[in-house]
Amino acid sequence: MKRFEVTTKIGSLSVAYKKQKKVLVCLNGAGLLPSYENYSLILEKLPPTMGYLTIDFPNTGRSPIHDQAGKNLDNLADAVYEVLEELAISEFILCAHSLSGILACKLLNKPIKCQALVVIEPTTKKVMFADFSENPYPKMEEQMRLIDECGPELYFKNLTQATFSPETNKEIWELMQEKSSELESQDQGFQMSGEITEEDFENVSIEAHIPVFIFCQAYREKEYRDSEYWTSNTKLILGGNHHYLQWSESEKIGLLFENCQNKMERRRVQETR
Q1: 3-state secondary structure the chain
Q2: Most buried residue, 2, 82, 116, 152, by most Cβ within 10 Å?
């Protein structure tokens, strides 16, 4: 694996890249998490013939500080596409967590050859712009109670501590705390990320030939069946009891990628006959 920066129109992006013909491209949700560590439990389970690319968006992980004022989700999609072009990645599976679900949908409109889309609790328009005066998910109350009891930061620290090795957990928190300090010192008006609007969720169209796999907690099943991610070629995989299923369900997700890679290889062999 090599770690380096790629220059884009929205700033330099830190990437971790293991080159192979077939590549898993991983996109983070909101927050400061370094993307390589965020997906590390999945990456270590990939077949040796499958490469990967993780991308830290501006002002997160190992990427440098760069004001995103005036930027939007289309600009971020363009930047990710710039990285794919720079590295000449043409055959890949796209994996996106949370807010990057809608980013992944925008990427599918680019002239790319995405073999499959795997989304982990992706953000839907219904929840992104919901009226939260009432909890839309009564079954989520236990999670909210835990967060309220100990505070969001301690809840998240407990989660990462239970998930990662002490060394990886230390690296994650050192990177996030360093980035948080950098962001706090920015001038007023600095914007950490580009704007996301309701329009970003409109006219979303995933072509039926692209397999879509949604990993989500059981109580969100109906939300996703009614969502912009649902096509005739979408499958739901239920499990877990928190939002970071790339950690708790890494075995299931890793097995899915292995199966996808095998199917891609069989298809390639058939095409060469």
Answers
A1: CEEEEEEECCEEEEEEEECCCEEEEEECCCCCCCHHHHHHHHHCCCCCCEEEEEEECCCCCCCCCCCCCCCEHHHHHHHHHHHHHHCCCCCEEEEEECCHHHHHHHHCCCCCCEEEEEEECCCCHHHHCCCCCCCCCHHHHHHHHHHHHHCHHHHHHHHHHHHCCHHHHHHHHHHHHHHHHHHHCCCCCCCCCCECCHHHHCCCCCCCCCCEEEEECHHHHHHHHCCCCCCCCEEEEECCCCCCHHHHCHHHHHHHHHHHHHHHHHHHHHHHC
A2: 116
Overall domain count for the chain: 1
pTM of the model: 0.92
Enclosing domain of residue 211: 2-272
At 257, which CATH number? 3.40.50.1820
